[in-house]
Amino acid sequence: MIVSAVIPFPNIYWWLQVAEADKVAFDLAEHFEKMTYRNKYFITGANGGIQLSIPLKKGRGQRTPMGEVEIDNSQRWQVQHWRTLVSVYKRSAYFEHYEPLLQPLFEQEYGKLADFNLASVLWLKKQLGLKFEEEMATIYKPSYAEADTDLRHSLKPGIEHEATKDTEPYYQLFSDRNGFLPNLSILDLLFAEGPHAMQWVHNNMALIKGWAKK
User: Fold this and answer.
1) Confidence band (pLDDT; 50, 70, 90) for 62?
2) 149-150 and 23-27 beta bridge pairing
């Protein structure tokens, strides 16, 4: 079993960890942490990586349980995120295939951050053909004796770079000017490799075995 925060469109490091898991427990009782992936994801762009952040209602600080954090939908962030994804990836090999499947996620309004994040994870799980069971943890536990890996404290931009720096490059838009950017949201890999994305994941799983500790 893997224990994790629920994050939007998780990055490649996250999927390398959970690809062979039988169960993923999403902690909805942990306190929201700023400066983490809990309300942001990264994609490529013409001038380097692009951070797409989900705005939150004010007053939702780091003492708020993740399952209670509310999205500020007055900022029309879904429109902005979707336009950015289309602008960046419209020329990628498989975006046209996934576009009509993904767009509804950006048209349905979500009140809670955890609900949107989980919807994004389940969408990706389906596209990648994974079978792990999901469990929603509503009571906080600092540790899980039954967990193989606890990802809750390693989901911060940059902290997992050491684990992913040696992953095989795949064809990535704008790599001619930016170089290859590892560990973006797995959307980047999916739009580039389509049905072959999981083969890439399996080929690279050995690189991160044992890196994330309990």
Assistant:
1) low
2) unpaired
Tokens of 85: 């994804």
| Residues 31/62, Cβ–Cβ less than 8 Å | yes
Domain ranges of the chain: 2-207
Structure tokens that stand for 123 in this block: 């969408």
Amino acid found at 14: W
DSSP helix, strand, coil percent of the chain (3-state; round to 5): 40, 15, 45
Nearest to 56 by CA among 66, 41, 71: 71
Spatial distance between the Cα atoms of 167 and 71, rounded to a whole number of angstroms:
34
Backbone angles phi, psi at 87, to 5 degrees: -60, -40
Q: State how far the Cα of 25 lies from the Cα of 101, in Å rounded to an integer.
A: 25
pLDDT, position 159: 66
Enter the tokens of residue 152: 């809750």
Determine the residue type at 19: A
> Which tens digits make up the pLDDT trace of 95-118?
999 999 999 999 999 999 999 999
Ramachandran sector of residue 194 (left: φ over 0; alpha: ψ -120 to 50; beta: rest):
left
- Read off the pTM: 0.93
pLDDT in tens, 162-212: 667 788 999 999 999 999 999 999 999 999 999 999 999 999 987 765 554
Nearest to 111 by CA among 175, 51, 68, 65: 68
